[in-house]
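Q: Sequence in, structure out?
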Amino acid sequence: MMMNSYKILFCPFYCFLVLLLSGQTGMQAEARHLNHHLLTKLFAFGDSYADTGNTRKGEGGSWIEPYGITFPGKPAGRWSDGRVLTDYIAKYLRLKSPIPYRLRKKMASHIKYGMNFAFGGTGVFNTSSSYPNMTIQIDFLEQLIKQKVYTASDLSNSVTLVAVSGNDYNFYLATNGSIQDFPSFITSVVNQITTNLIRIQKLGVKKIIVDGLQPLGCLPQTTVSSSFQQCNSTFNNLVLFHNDLLNQSVTKLNQENNNSIQILDLYDSFMSVLNDSLTHNIQNSLKPCCFGVSSDYNCGSVVSNEKKYELCDKPKSAFFWDGFHPTQAGWHAVYSKLKATNVLHRLLWAEGFV
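A: Exactly. Output:
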C-alpha cells in the first residue's frame, strides 16, 4: 500500500503455521525433514501484507524513514517497522524470505528460494495503485516458467502464499460504491480469488495458503474516529461475510484437490491478540506506533525538512505500525497465536504432497 494513497487504499478489509503441539516430538522431526528436503521455494502474491520490496524507491511509503527501523534497521520496502507476513511463513518453512520480483535480476542467486510477486496497494482487481493486480502477478510467474527459470519440480515442491488484505474494498468505498451493493461486490472479489487459486494450482503448485481478511474495523485508519478505543462492527461484519464465502469456496476446491489449500485465519488471530494484548507484551493494541500529526499527514510524512508524524518510543509494545499495518511485534504475536491452529502442518501432510 502506498502511503500517499492512504485515503484511497485499504491495504490491509474483510494460522499460522505450525510446529506440532508439544509432546509430538517424532512427528515434529519428520515435518522438519519434509521441510528441509522437499519444500524448496516460497512464492507470494498479494499486497502490502506480503510485499517485501516490490514498490519502487523514490515514491515514499515503505522506502522512507521510519519504515524498517526495527528490521533491517532502515527502509527496505516492507510496510512495517520490520518483518511482515511473508517473512514469518518463510521462517516456519525454514526458507529464506523470497526475493521481490523487482529485484530478480540484481539478486539472481536468491531465485532458488522462490519469489515474491506482491505489490503494496494492489488487489485482485485494479485499485488506485498503478502496480500490477494479482492476475498480472500470476502472469509474471507464468512467464518465468515459460522462460524455464522455474521447473515443474520447483513448483511441485513449493508453497504459495496468496495475501488479499482489503484494497479492493477500500477502493470500492472510495469510488462511491454503495453499502447496499457491498455484499454483491464481496462475492465478486471472492470469486476472483477462487479463480486465482485454481490458476495457481494449474501452474503446478500443490500447496497454497490464502489469508482470510483481518478485522478491517480494527485498523487504526478506522478506529481513529473513536480515538483508537473501539473497532467498527459494521466493517468487521462485512469481513466475516467475505471470510465465510472464502471458506465455502476453499472447502469445495479442497474436495476436488486433496486439501491442497489452507486458510490463514487472520481475523481470529488478530482479534485474539488485540483482546489479550498484554499477554503478548503489547501495550498499545489499537493506537498505531507511527502516525501523522493530523489527518493531512501519514507515517513518514516530511514537509520542508520538518517531520509531520509522531513515532512511539517502543515499536515492540505496539500492535499496529501505521494506519493499516502491524508492527513486527504485532506480526510476531499473530504468528505465535496461529501456531496452535496447525494450519501449515495440515497443508504439509495433506494427501498429494509429493
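The chain is about 35% helix and 10% strand.
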